[in-house]
Amino acid sequence: LEQQLLQAQKMEAIGRLAGGIAHDFNNLLTIIRGNADLLRSQFGDSADAALEYLDDLRLAADRAAALVRQLLMFSRQSSGQVEIVDVNSVIRGLASMLDRLLGERIRLVVDLSAEPATVLADYSHLEQVIMNLAVNARDAMPDGGVLTLSTRLLPSADIEGPQRWVQLRVSDTGVGMDDAVKERIFEPFFTTKGPDKGTGLGLTTAFGIVQRLGGQIHVDTAPGCGTTFTLTLPWAKGQTVQESRTPLPPALVRQ
Ligand code: ADP
């Protein structure tokens, strides 16, 4: 627990730092992109070789801008709009999008608790955590497999803590991880997917959100044996207000 706390403090500091850098960086990128566009317009339609360099420059600046956007999203430490949310309805709301995301070769199995799995959280933050874990699971199963999302309510033995816990499991039958990778997955920018595919911010973001909810993330994995992420969140007593909430359109769900 102490280690998770330390990790959370580190994340928060890095988040703030990243946010500051992203902001300044964005201003610089605006200058770079603006000047590239200006220069580009001077060339008109001429077939100068310099045009190619200029287009490369513009492309790189655009990619950098996309990365900065992601950084800013990650560093936003807002607690969002906190309400009583049923994790089960979040999963139900995402199911059709997840199906599409996973494609034909990955089967989605959903096994939800009979009782509402209520927690005090921001609905879209929970969506983001589940999406990030699902995207990783998909990437870990290039040849297909099974992604299982399950929830359970657990009694709490801790008198000081909440009465119960909501446990969310995201389990895949993918490639798994060795110890060297497993140790680093929550580090910002750690990715094994290469700079074009991965940002290394998915799990850092998920970790930060879970931590702020007073929960924990645990990982079980081994090479070739798949991966299970177990999230334990403090149960919240009460009725949800957004039972009939319609799921967000895909474009609005942050990945
Ligand atoms: P990204 O997905 O951009 O690489 P993440 O922070 O989401 O960033 O994940 C970091 C790394 O953790 C991944 O690059 C991958 O090596 C590893 N990882 C995460 N989830 C899984 C999984 N379900 N199976 C295998 N490896 C995983």
From TrEMBL:
Molecular function per GO: ATP binding; phosphorelay sensor kinase activity
Positions of the Histidine kinase domain: 20-237
UniProt superkingdom: Bacteria
Keywords: ATP-binding, Coiled coil, Kinase, Nucleotide-binding, Phosphoprotein, Transferase, Two-component regulatory system
Protein name: histidine kinase
Organism: Thermogemmata fonticola
Range of the intact protein held here: 271 to 525 of 697
